[in-house]
Amino acid sequence: MQQKLMRKMAVFTSVFTIFTFSIVLAFVMNKDIFVNAQVSTSGKSAYSDSKATASDQTIQNELNSQEMVSSDTLTYNAIKIKSNNMTKQEVVLNLGENSKTSLVIDKNVDIDQVYTEHNVIITLKGISLSSDQLSVETDADTDLESADSTYDGKNTLVKLTFSKIKQVETDTGKNCLKLTCNNPRDLYDKIVVIDVGHGGTDIGNKSIYEGEIYCEKDIALAVAKALYNRKEVQTEMVGTGGLTGTKESVGFFFTRLTDTEISDEKRVNMAKELSADLLIGIQTSYAEDAALNGTQVLYNGQYFIPGFGSVELADILERDTVTKICSKAIGLVASNDEDYLLRNATMPVAVLQIGYQSNQEELIKMLNPDYCELVADGIYSTVLDSFESAGTIQN
Questions:
Q1: Comparing C-alpha atoms, which of 332, 327, 307 is closest to residue 377?
Q2: Which residues contact 326 (CB under 8 A, 6 or more apart)?
Q3: What is the pLDDT of residues 7-44, one digit of tens each?
Q4: How many Å separate Cα 198 from the centre of its chain?
Q5: Confidence of residue 107 (pLDDT cuts 50, 70, 90)
Q6: Residue 360 CB-half CA count within 13 A
Q7: Are residue 174 and residue 223 in the same domain, yes or no?
Q8: Chosen domain end from 130, 153, 182
Q9: Are 240 and 314 in contact (CB under 8 A)?
């Protein structure tokens, strides 16, 4: 009797042990899933902190999983191009005679210019058209090399590729979209290239704050969009006016306005092709010492430009930005041999490092849209003050 009781107790103990182990194992697995789920739902970006709850590999895996589907992953089909005796520099995208769609810019038509690739991307929102239904008419002077289209399940995307950088102005007609393809130097007296740091899988400085992931590429893009959306910049970009109180117009060209990866070589080539008068980069800083804070500017200290050069631009950029955002000025830093952009630019060039992502207080500021607007104000003031200092624009 006693032996039977002991055997029953042994069985019960074994079952209880297995059950307890299963519960603990399930908890551990679910905890891991919960941590990953927290990271994946953030939708934001990042730097690595020694006190963070996620490892660098976890961050990188999550960032890779968040990578947006770009137009490069879609299959484009060629659109037939007809050469007609049209208005010089004009390209017309025809939707077909049977199309009853009325095109309205910014409503069901978006235009994106990818200057580094010589592309103009036309998004026909909520419209499904095949390449056979579309056609393009152009004049030989437009430098149009190809026209392709694809459908992403929601919108029809049309990609126009030119042999050189073009600045397009758009208008709509009956079942068509008209684009006037200008050479930038025909529109603007002065050209400023804004290089928006990093992009795509090149995330730059990365950080975690309160379980959220943050990337340098996103902070730089937020500042660039704030600058792009300024009324003055928008006016100057379409060539309808110049700076207030001046006789010269200034065109702002951005290396990217989306989460796109661009090589340093293409960034520099874009500035050179445009014969840019100024090249200004947007980045952040990072340091192991979390107490470090402030704004610094990098410049090309090797390429000497008589009169107004990189060091003069860097000085104005730091002064104007620090004044706007009430930051601490760290100073100017000459570029090293590893910095391709600064080393290879042949025009006045300076890279603004807004603040330290490794400093919690500055990180929080840089994530604030109002703060990004102030940084954009500083960059805009830099452009005005630089041309005035160089004697090319009189206020």
A1: 327
A2: none
A3: 545 545 554 555 454 544 444 444 332 222 222 223 33
A4: 8
A5: confident
A6: 8
A7: no
A8: 182
A9: no
The 10 Å Cβ neighbour count of residue 179 is 23
- pLDDT of 193 strictly over 60: yes
Looking at residue 326, the DSSP 8-state letter turns out to be T
DSSP per-residue string spanning 244-256: TT-S--EEEEES-
Instruction: Read off the pLDDT of each residue in 291-307 and give the average, rounded to a whole number.
Output: 91
Q: What is the CATH number of the domain that holds 153?
A: 2.60.40
Q: Are 379 and 222 in contact (CB under 8 A)?
A: no
Residue with tokens 């290396």: 255
Strands of the sheet containing 329-334, edge to edge, are 250-254, 190-196, 278-285, 349-356, 295-299, 329-334
**CA 234/CA 239 separation, integer angstroms:** 9
Question: Same domain, yes or no, for 332 and 194?
Answer: yes
pLDDT of residue 259: 96
Report which residue type is found at 262.
Answer: I
d(CA 74, CA 212) in angstroms, rounded, equals: 30
Looking at residue 125, the DSSP 8-state letter turns out to be T
Amino acid at 276: A
